[in-house]
Design goal:
The structure is a single chain. The termini are far apart. The chain has 2 domains: about 325 residues, Aminopeptidase; about 200 residues, Glucose Oxidase, domain 1 (3-Layer(bba) Sandwich). It is globular, with a radius of gyration of 24 Å. The chain is an alpha/beta fold. The strands form 4 sheets. Strands 1, 2, 11, 14, 15, 18, 19, 20, 21 and 22 form a 10-stranded mixed sheet that branches.
């Protein structure tokens, strides 16, 4: 029975309505064909299968639209209540994934279990009682949400002098360091968001695309490494795009729900300095003693690029955060292993990943999360069955394959950051990461993307690959295998710095560990993070083609003599 474990969980609940819903799901799922019986070529695959090596055909043929439809109809059903992290629906999804890995014949990858525990702290900030305060000239000014806002998993007060440290970046290989000549120990640092020269195609920071240094987490960790006790983040004053806050506000849906989504944090996280995001007006006032205007500071940095960091005289800031509730809980990364066939290469790993959580339920509204990321979850499960079936009836990959569906991605990539810090297999011998996040829709214009990125007229056969700048070898393999599948491959998001795509999914923690890691993504649409992201809107034909391409590419990653190389400095020349 498909989804048996999850269905039994809900049938055991007292709610008769929920039981009726689950029975309906059971009827739908009963129409699916078990993976173990799908060994003959499906008529719909005939054209795409031409030229696929016979030794790989068994697994290739298990990837079918009807099976994907059945699984995703269950995973995005009302019964799973939007799969909010730490809630019942997501727990059912976790059990379903583990059950599917077991049925596929994978080995438990987490100390004899399919489940890697991830301890979380959940908290709800008190916006009315939280503020950022500036003390200067004997007076004090306070800013609250939305002029200045942040959160922390416990009540906190941090007061310190402020230093401006440009973009907050330390990039030794580029000979660029905003902290050069600055003592940030015991200070609160004020930094610009994003990176220098991001509209310049010749920038040392990967031209017009983002590098690993652009994200807030990396910048806060860098501030901690330099002894800072807090971080203030200001949007670049000369930006040619929306600020991150303006961009997020455009999404609507779960972002604007009546009861805000709770925040979550890893109970054991290396990131511990509180941070705040400032409005342009608040940042300008704090920078008033810098000697030059914020726009001139950015222009001077971007011109060379050359740091313009400095102390801010008579400037002391307090970060004062309070919460209305704080609790702890446990969720799980779900992980299964298919051991490699080669005595030497089986110690190396190819990782396939997605995330199982979404935005849950509020009142009677359910954020179904069919595309985000039911599609990626179902994709990882489908590939687990495909590779296992092929190992039983055809060829087993030489390197080992690790299949992981991460927890709490929507709350800040928490499950993947946890696994990167507590790997189930060594990161130094992990050769490639194939991450699925939203692989089921046709990309169409939405409020989030309007005016920020060009969308092709026809995206019915289009797959966005994100991360190619960091591994041309990886990309070359995917392009080579695409001759058997025929998707339109798109790299627009590697040249984008407005939407912050590069670090918005679970491949990113592994990029930080120098592992070739791509996000496979079909693009945004108006249903993104809305209750209308439902299973009936999925393009199952394209989704199946994407998974077939991942299957063939995964075999190449697992078998090729020389694995993909990682490019640490995709921007090219370093600053002198």
């Amino acid at each position: 029975m498909r989804g048996g474990a999850a269905l039994r969980m809900f049938l055991a609940m007292k709610s008769s309505k929920r039981a009726v819903i689950v029975v309906a799901c059971l009827v739908v799922l009963g129409l699916g064909i078990p993976y173990s019986l799908v060994v003959a070529p499906h008529p719909a695959l005939a054209q795409g299968q031409q030229g696929v090596p016979a030794s790989l055909a068994t697994g290739f043929n298990t990837i079918r639209e009807d099976t994907l439809h059945a699984d995703l109809t269950f995973l995005a059903s009302d019964a799973l209540q939007g799969r909010m992290s730490l809630q019942t629906g997501d727990e059912a999804a976790i059990q379903w994934i583990a059950s599917e890995f077991a049925k596929a014949g994978l080995q438990p990858a987490a100390s004899g279990s399919f489940l890697q525990p991830v301890e979380l702290i959940e908290y709800r900030g008190d916006r009315a009682q939280s503020y950022v305060a500036l003390k200067r000239g004997g007076g004090e000014k306070q800013w609250r949400f939305p002029e200045a806002f942040g959160s922390y998993h416990s009540d906190v007060d941090v007061t310190a002098e402020v230093v401006f440290v440009g973009y907050g970046i330390t990039a030794p290989e580029l000979h660029y360091d905003d902290y050069q000549g600055i003592d940030a120990r015991g200070k609160i640092v004020l930094i610009f968001d994003h990176e220098p020269q991001e509209t310049n195609p010749a920038s040392i920071f990967n031209g017009t695309g983002n590098t690993r240094y652009a994200t807030g987490r990396v910048k806060i960790l860098n501030a901690q490494a330099h002894g800072a006790v807090g971080v203030l983040i200001a949007a670049e004053p000369n930006r040619k795009h929306l600020s991150n806050q303006e961009r997020v506000a455009r999404i609507g849906g779960s972002i604007t729900r009546a009861v805000p989504l709770p925040s979550q944090a890893l109970a054991e996280d290396e990131l511990h300095a509180p941070a705040a995001v400032l409005s342009d007006a608040a940042a300008k006032e704090i920078l008033a003693t810098a000697g030059v205007a914020p726009s001139e500071l950015q222009a001077a940095i971007d011109r060379d690029p050359k740091p313009q960091s400095r102390a801010l005289p008579d400037t002391q800031v307090t970060l004062h955060y309070r919460n209305v509730s704080v609790s702890s809980g446990k969720t799980y990364n779900v992980a299964g292993l298919l051991g490699g066939s080669d005595p030497q290469l089986k110690t190396e790993t190819i990782l396939f990943s997605g995330h199982h959580d979404h935005d849950g339920i509020s009142g009677t509204e359910i954020w179904h999360g069919a595309d985000d990321n039911g599609s990626g979850t179902v994709g990882v499960v489908a590939l687990a069955h495909a590779f296992a079936a092929n190992a039983a009836h055809g060829e087993r990959p030489k390197r080992s394959l690790l299949f992981v569906v991460f927890a709490a991605e929507e709350r800040g990539l928490l499950g993947s950051f946890y696994m990167a810090a507590h790997p189930l297999r060594p990161l130094e011998t992990t050769r490639a990461v194939v991450n699925f996040d939203m692989i089921g829709r046709n990309e169409t214009e939405s409020e989030q993307t309007k005016g920020l990125i060009d969308i092709p007229a026809d995206t019915t056969n289009r797959l966005n690959l994100i991360g190619a700048s960091y591994s041309s070898d990886y990309n070359r393999t995917v392009v080579q295998e695409n001759k058997f599948v025929g998707l339109d491959l798109d790299y627009r998001f590697d040249r984008d710095s407005a939407l912050n795509i590069f670090f918005r999914s679970d491949q990113f923690p592994f990029v930080l560990h120098n592992i070739p890691s791509f996000w496979w993504f079909t693009g945004f649409h108006p249903d993104y993070h809305h209750t209308t992201d439902t299973a009936d809107k999925i393009n199952y034909v394209k989704m199946a083609k994407i998974l077939r391409l991942a299957y063939l590419s995964g075999f190449q990653f697992a078998n090729q003599a020389v694995p993909p190389k990682f490019v640490a400095n995709p921007g090219g020349k370093a600053a002198k």
